[in-house]
Amino acid sequence: MNISERPSLKIIPIGGTTTVQKNMYVYECGNDMIVMDCGIGFPDMETPGVDVTIPDFTYILENRHKVRGVVITHGHEDHRGSLPYLLQEHKFDVYAVPFVKALIEKSLEEYTNLGDYKVKAFDPNQSFQLGCFRLTPFRVNHSIPDTLGFAIDTPQGRIFHNSDFKFDWSPVMDKPFDVQKAARLAGEPQEGVLALLSDCLGATSEGFTESESKIQETFEKVLKNSKDKQVFITTISSNISRIQQAINAAEKFGRKVVLSGRSIRNTIEIAQQMGYIKEAKDTIIDERDAHNHKQETLIYIITGCYGQKEAGLWRVALGEHKSITISDKSVVIFSADPIPNSVSAVNSLIDELYLKGVDVYYSEIQDDLHVSGHGGQGDMVLLANIVRPKYFIPIGGSIKHMRAYANLIDANGFDKRNVAQLLDGQSIVFKDGKAALGDRLKLKEVYVDGNLVGDVGASVLKDRIQMANHGMVAVVIHGQNIEIITRGFVFIKGSKKLLESAENIIRKSLTEKKDERKIENKLQQFLFKETGREPIVVVTIAN
């Protein structure tokens, strides 16, 4: 079939091009569709009470009959964490390499209402077909083993999909980036590669990202200076190579290792079963037995590197952990740079640890505590020159990173006009070797709050922020009796005159008309005029 007679190819980022997280990309051609990744996002100061954010699945669910599979590129939560919410809506087939499959299945155990679902393992050394798409995986490097790039053959040409990656010539585990295979795949099509979807998160970082293997040396330096001290290392729970290096350093200094946090324990259990984690006999001990050991002989690898309030390190810092106690002779090592929306939380946690007298090591004061899993400018230019596509689509970053990537590509001899900086929901359509922007989906923010998925919207978050900043005033009116209750607004005993005046405003409003909304508005105006604050005001008139 002549290429002009073949169906056009549409690529849509559902998430992952404007917020770094919630990675999810749709490839659509004729009656076939595949989904690459299905990640979660993390809440920030503007989303109080929210547990996680997830992509808007509306377009995928509307076209569920077309979806031939959901392919997961690697095991990080921002690429697979939304799967339980997607599978609750429809039992799509999920494809992953064996290690990532095991991580997915372990995490899905928590969701007892999923019913039957299929996570299918594929061989990373073999191509496989999903509808009209033929996917050929190749090995890349990242901060978790078995991360893959894909050459995707479509009716319009070959696409390279490289989510998180870097070139690491001496990785702690895994093998180096399979440059030879990537180059071979790039050179096979006579017409060349149509497009490259490339990780752009490191587009503002000069040079090549350093090898993960240098971290162990830093751990050993800190341990050497921390004799007779209890030591904590906090990192991303899925950063297995980082945890392996912490174990190696612990063994060198004769320390036992305690894994604290369910996500870390689950990940390492799977990594041990699959031969990725190697430790001497009895190096890792149960957290429940840690109190039977001298604390200066232990290293705790603990959750909480992003300052999450529910994670183990915060509870230890506050003295609320049920089995771990920290002291002013302890050392805490942050071996992860905070993601953009966690900086404030991490700084608060560091402050709390300092107040406890703890020695804290973090990247601003100690070099080589963290190495990014994302390539820098050198990595991106190298991949661009290996693939040499006609079009470029930066993914996995923010608007700032996409713009930096476009400028980088332009500075290295490629045509900047062929870099598509797609916002979430913006489609790009390929037809006859040419690309054009298509329609943009209207995507909504979807929040997970406890057991509620999508039920918390902008108005609820606005109310939460308003209550957090200004407090709440509740008014209950029963006949001539008026009760004013405040929370987080003013100290009642010191605000007697204010509340008496507020009651008079309410009584005057009642003589006009018993309208709850009208009373709320008048009371809000009065309170703002008197205090400069805008509490949530709720009025209830009882019958």
In this structure, how is the largest beta sheet organized? 8 strands, mixed
Radius of gyration: 27 Å
Distance between the termini: 75 Å
Q: What's the count of strands?
A: 26
Which structural category fits the helices and strands?
alpha/beta
The helicity comes to 25-40%
Strand content: 15-25%
Strand order of the largest sheet: 7-6-5-3-2-1-20-21
The number of helical runs is 15
What number is the mean pLDDT? 89
Low-pLDDT stretches: none
The rough form would be described as globular
General description of the model:
There is one protein chain. The protein has 543 residues and is an alpha/beta fold. Helices cover 29% and strands 24% of the residues. It starts with 8 loop residues before the first strand and ends with a strand. A hairpin with a 2-residue loop joins strand 24 (472-478) and strand 25. Helix 4 packs antiparallel against helix 8.
Summarize the structure.
The chain is of the alpha/beta class. The chain has 15 helices and 26 strands. Helix 6 runs parallel beside helix 7.
Please describe the topology of this protein:
Layout: E1 9-15, E2 24-29, E3 32-36, E4 52-54, H1 58-62, E5 67-71, H2 77-80, H3 83-89, E6 94-96, H4 98-108, E7 119-121, E8 128-130, E9 133-139, E10 148-154, E11 157-162, H5 179-187, E12 195-199, H6 215-224, E13 230-234, H7 240-252, E14 256-260, H8 262-273, E15 284-285, E16 298-302, H9 312-317, E17 330-334, H10 343-355, E18 359-361, H11 377-387, E19 391-395, H12 399-411, E20 426-431, E21 434-440, E22 446-449, E23 452-453, H13 458-470, E24 472-478, E25 481-487, H14 496-512, H15 516-531, E26 536-542
Helix pairs in contact: 4-8, 6-7, 14-15
